[in-house]
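Changelog excerpt

This revision adds worked examples to the README so contributors can see how folded entries look when concatenated. The first example is reproduced verbatim below.
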Amino acid sequence: MQRRASLGGAEFEPRTTYLNSASSGLLPARSAAALRAAVEESVSYGTMGRDYFAAAHASRAAFARLLDVPAERVALGSSVAVQSAFVAASLPAGAEVLAPEGDFSSLLNPFAAHPGIKLRTVPLEALADAVRPGTALVAFSAVQSLDGRIAEMAAVREAARAHGARTYLDATQAAGWLPLRAADFDFVVAGAFKWLLCPRGTTFMAFGGDLGRGEEWPAALHAGWVAGEDIGASNYGPLRPAADARRFDEPHAYLSYVGAEQSLGLLGELGVAAVHAHNTALADRYRAGLAERGLTPCPAPGSAIVSTPGIAGAEQRLTEADVRISVRGGLLRAAFHLYNSTDDVDRLLALLG
C-alpha cells in the first residue's frame, strides 16, 4: 500500500519510521546534496570551501526570517552550552538567574557552573509567578525537551519586564514548528540540528530587547577573527568588533552551515504555520489513540512532542521494528515533524497494541 504523503514530500524518504526529531532531525535531500558537493569541493579547495561566508550569511538570514527578527540581530554559533556561557558571563556578579526545574542541561549548567551567579529553579508552571525583585535573568526553554510541555512564554516575559529582568529563551525544541518572535525576548538561542533539520554544529543566537539599540552590547568575550567589523583586517591583534550581532559569531563549521542554508530554506518555503498545523495534528491523533488504550500522555494538545509514562519498555521492540523513538525520564517520547504522516502514527499505535 502506498504511504500517505508527508508535508516534506520528496525531500524525505526515510527507511525507518522516524519519530525522534526531539533528538535530531532528518536532513532534507537538498541539504544532503549540498553537503556532498561541498565535501567534494574541499578535496581541491580546502575545508573552508571557495566561499567560507556565503552559506553562513544565507543561513543567518533564513533563520532571522523564520523568527521574525532582522538578520543583523543574529549571531552564529556551535552549541547552546557555549551561548549560555556567554549569557552567563554578561551578568553582574551575584546575579540571580531563575529557571525551570529539570530544564535541559546545556541551558542550565553554564549558569550553575558560573561563579557568582545564583541559580534558582522552580516548577515550570510556577515560573512567571516566581520572578521577583532582584531576579536578573529568566532562562527557560520554549518547549521542554523531556516531555514537550510548552512554557507560558507571554506570562514569563511580562513578569520579567515588570521586575526589570532579562529573558533568555531556548528555542531548540520549538524553532521550526512553533511560531515564535525572537524580538519578544532579550536572548533567543536555538540548536538547529533538531526541528530546523540542520547538521550538528549549527546554533543561532538572536537578540531582542534593547541590546545594541541604545543599550550597549555585552562584551564579545569569545570573539575571534570572524567577529571583526572588517573581517579582512581582523586576523591579527585585538579586533574592532562588528557593530551588529555578528560581533558574537564563532568561526563556524563550514560544512554544517552549507547544509543549514538548504534546510532553513526548505522550512522558509513551507512556512512555520503550516509545519505547526501538520505536526500538532499528528501528535493529537497519537494522543487520541493512546487515550483509547487507557494511557495518559503528556503534555496537553498543542505540542509536537508526546511523552507517555508506563510504556518505556516498548522502546526495544519498536527499535527492532525500525521505529526510531526515544525514552527520557521513564517516558516514551514521540516527536512528529514534517516528514511524518498519519501512517507513522497508526503504525506506532499498532505496534504499541
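The second example, added in the same revision:
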Amino acid sequence: MKVVCVGGGPAGLYFSILMKLRDGGHDVTVYERDPAGSTYGWGVTYWGSLLDKLRAGDPVSARAVEDASVRWSDGVAHVRGSTTRHRGDEGFGIGRHRLLELLADRAADLGVRVVYGHEAEPGDLADEAAGAGLVVAADGVRSALRGRWADHFGTEVTVGRNPYLWLGTTKVFDAFTFSFVESAHGWIWCYAYRFGPEAGTVVVECAPETWRGLGLDRATEAEGLALLGDLFADVLDGHPLTGGGSAGGGPARWLTFRTLTNRTWHRGNVVLLGDAAHTTHYSIGAGTSLALEDALALTAALHSAPAGVADRTPDPAALDAALTRYESVRRAELLSVQSAARYSARWYEDLPRYVRLPPEQMFALLGQRHSPLLPYVPPQLYYRLDRAAGRLESLRRLKRWLGPRLAGSLHARNSR
C-alpha cells in the first residue's frame, strides 16, 4: 500500500516503522514541516508498560529507546520548606530530540522516505499523494489536515485555565520533583525530571492571577527566566533555566493547555493519529506514550482486516471498517487516561484546597489527583479514607466502585 504520513513526530515516525515491518513492500513517505534535527520541547516521560508494547511492536527501536533513556523511581515534593519523598513506580525520561532521531534512523533503515521542510497539506501533496491508499494526519494538535475538514471531524478544543511554560536546565534531578512556592501573588509550582545525563526538564505552572501579578505576562524571556530561577532556587541548586525549547532556539512561550477531541477520527482514506486525534493534560506525562500506542493500534487494525485493505488501492469499505476498528479500540483504551488527565489538571487548578495540608498529606493527595472522588470530599477526610482503604481490601473495593458513581452524581448536580 502507498502511505503518506503528514507529521514527523513520534506518532508518524513510529507508524511508518510498524508498517514497513509488517510488509516491506509498503511505500511509506513521511512529510515533516520542520527542518531535520529541529524539534520543540525538552524531555518526555514514559513508564515501563510502554516499553513492553514497544518491544512487541519493534524490538530494535524499543531497545534503542530504552538504552537512550534515564530512569527514576522516587518522587519528591518541596513545599513551605519541607521535603517529602515517596517511592513509586519506575519512570523513564528521554530527550524529545533524541527520541525523534532514533525513530527517524530506524525508519530510514527500513526504507521509509522522510522528507523534511515540507509543509504538506492535501492540496499541496500533488503527485506525492496521488494514488495513496492511506493518508495519515499525524501533524499535531493544530493539524492542517484535520482543519481542512474540521466540520467532518467535529473537532472541539477546550482551553485550560492555568498558563504553563516548558523549560530546560542543566540540573540533573535524582527523582521526579515537584516544587510549590508561595509568592506575594499566589502559588507557583513546577514539575521537574531528568531526561539525560546532563539535562533536565522543568514545567512551570500557576494561576492566571499569579502569572499577571508576578509580571510574567509582560516579562521578556530573560527577565522571566531570572525570576523563575530565583523562585525555584532551592531545587535548581544554582543551575540556570533555559528557554528556547527547540533545536532552533526559539523563545520560551507561556501557553494554556488545549484539550482536543474529535467526533470521528477518519474521513475516506484520511485518518488522525496522536495529538491530531486527541490530547491529554501534560501533568500525567502520557502524551508521547498515547501517540505511540495509537500507531500500534492503527497498524494492527490495518493488518488484521480482510484481504485487500493493505493493497496499493484498498477497498474503500474494508478500509473504512479497519479505521473504524482502530478508532473504537483506541477510544475505549483512552477513557481512563483522559479521565485521569482531567482530574489531574483540576487538582492543580484547585491547589489552594490542598496546599495548606501537612506536607505528607498534601503529597499523598498529589498522588491521588487522578481520583474522580477527590474534588468532592474534604481533603483530610479523603486522606484518612485512603489510608484506611490501603489497609482493608473491602474498603479498596468500595472506593473503586463508589468513586466514579458518586463523582458523576455530584458533578451532574453542580452543573445544573
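Reviewer comment on example two: Residues 218 and 245 are 20 Å apart (CA to CA). Residues 316-349 form the longest helix (34 residues).
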